[in-house]
Design goal:
Strand order of the largest sheet: 5-2-1-6-7
Oligomer: single chain
CATH architecture: 3-Layer(aba) Sandwich
CATH superfamily: NAD(P)-binding Rossmann-like Domain
Number of domains: 1
Structural class: alpha/beta
Number of helices: 5
Helix content: 25-40%
């Protein structure tokens, strides 16, 4: 990920300063979980690959469920970053990257966040939590 974070909302990162939720990886799992939290009013910051962040900056995020429900979050409702900003202090991190990106994402989180920040692996696979702890 580039060292410089790009955000759709100018100024500080209030969700991260106030102990919000940082979603690391904004594919199907991270997008749905983070989107549901954001739709419920929880302060959420999405961190993902520049290509995905650019798509979300352009069209927003549409959530659908198994009952056929749909909810659209326009770009201005999303806090989107290409990298974890300096000084971030989320109350919770949802690690939602693909298995092959777990080690790199965990290293980025460890370097950027205060020790003791809770990280929950929301990934497919049985070894991701162990890789993230390494």
């Amino acid at each position: 990920m580039p060292a410089e974070a790009q955000d759709t909302q100018p100024g500080a990162d209030p969700a991260l300063a106030q102990g919000g939720v940082l979603v690391m990886g904004t594919g199907s799992v991270g997008g749905w979980l983070g989107g549901r939290l954001a739709a419920a009013g929880v302060p959420v910051v999405f961190v993902g690959r520049p290509r995905m962040m650019q798509a979300l900056r352009s069209v927003g995020l549409t959530l659908s469920d198994r009952d056929g429900g749909h909810r659209h979050l326009p770009p201005e409702r999303l806090h989107l970053l290409d990298a974890i900003p300096p000084g971030a202090a989320p109350g919770l991190v949802l690690l939602c990257v693909k298995s092959g990106a777990t080690a790199q994402a965990a290293a980025e989180l460890a370097a950027a966040l205060p020790a003791g920040t809770p990280v929950v692996s929301m990934q497919n696979g049985i070894h991701n939590a162990a890789v993230a702890q390494a």
